[in-house]
Write a structure and sequence with these properties.
about 325 residues, Rossmann fold, D-amino Acid Aminotransferase, Chain A, domain 1, Dna Ligase, domain 1, 3 domains, five-stranded mixed beta sheet, 10 helices, 17 strands, globular
């Protein structure tokens, strides 16, 4: 009997449209011989399944739908929501209460890693190299001279709980720092300001299908813009070179580090972490726990280089979740 799979997409953040693109790719590639697939749109105004041109409301009491006069419950939920409420874990806590299985890490791990500050705080205890940083809450006094003196210029100002480079600025001049901080506060009430790390940027996918941790072929990021911003990620303003042009020793060091971080944070499912090499030492930047899954996204590129078709890759994510 085919398993009922809900692919959730959308969300409540600026990443909604990107998430929908990811979710629709997953829907397209899932094996119809094994699964009955239901695209589920989680939006602030409504939750619904879309079957053809028909929208079917979700019964939130048990996350079910009424389809063809039959109540449909789901064997597994494929989480393709970037940002709130998928990547920060909120909807996963709801699924836990309903005893539903899903493809990403549990609520706590998702909530932890969605906060850039909290992730760095944990990893520093394990001697993971990271950039110097300052953390601000909305309403805190802002001393731009002290920030510049502590971190140097240029520096990065980031919304603490946002993705896809929303709320991120690279600041070269002290007179632009205040404006960048206010811009980041439009995305999050918490921001992180980090020292600039100059070096090769490499993105590393890690999966744990069938309880076996695997580091995927790495991707070198070469942005045409000042940094790997929204345009570079989604509008073709970058080169994404897989496998990355790094030495065998750099690859070994980074592979061990990426796997260590995955284990330290007790992750599940697929993740993508970004690093910058500074004098041959990879520095951790951030982790994406619901990485982009469109055809052009980095994780699908890495999966293909590892020998996976997207049908098999997404299917393994589901089957591994069903066994947990």
């Amino acid at each position: 009997m085919k398993k009922n799979i809900a692919v959730i997409m959308g969300g409540y953040s600026s990443e909604k449209e990107i998430s929908i693109k990811s979710g629709e790719v997953v829907v397209h590639h899932l094996d119809r011989d094994k699964y009955q697939v239901f695209p589920i749109y989680i939006l602030s105004e409504k939750w619904y399944a879309k079957m053809g041109t028909t929208e079917i409301s979700i019964d939130k009491s048990d996350f079910s739908i009424l389809y063809n006069n039959k109540k449909i419950t789901f064997d597994c939920i494929f989480n393709a929501i970037h940002g709130n409420p998928g990547e920060n874990g909120r909807i996963l806590a709801y699924f836990d209460l309903l005893n539903l299985k899903y493809t990403s890490a549990p609520f706590y791990q998702m909530a932890l890693t969605f906060s850039k500050r909290d992730t760095l705080s944990v990893l520093k205890k394990y001697d993971i190299p990271v950039a110097k940083s300052i953390y601000l809450n909305k309403g805190d006094a802002i001393d731009v001279k002290n920030i510049a003196a502590t971190l140097g210029l240029p520096c990065f100002v980031k919304a603490n709980c946002a993705g896809s480079s929303y709320g991120v600025s690279k600041v070269h001049k002290i007179e632009n720092l205040q404006k960048a901080i206010q811009y980041s506060f439009t995305e999050s009430d918490e921001i992180l300001i980090e020292s600039f790390l100059e070096g090769k940027e490499v993105s590393v996918g890690v999966i744990d299908f069938n309880d076996k941790i695997e580091v995927l072929p790495m991707t070198e990021i070469v942005s045409e813009n000042d940094f790997f911003d929204y345009e570079a990620k989604y509008l073709g303003k970058s080169q994404e070179i897989t496998p990355a042009r790094i030495t065998p020793s750099e690859k070994e060091i980074l592979s061990k580090l990426a796997a260590k971080i995955y284990k330290v944070l007790n992750m599940k499912g697929m993740t993508r972490s970004d690093f910058i090499f500074v004098e041959d030492v990879p520095h951790f930047i951030e982790m994406n726990t619901v990485p982009g899954l469109s055809e052009a996204s980095i994780i699908p590129q890495q999966a293909k280089h590892a020998g996976y078709s997207l049908k098999d890759f997404f299917g393994l994510a589901i089957e591994s979740s069903l066994k947990r």
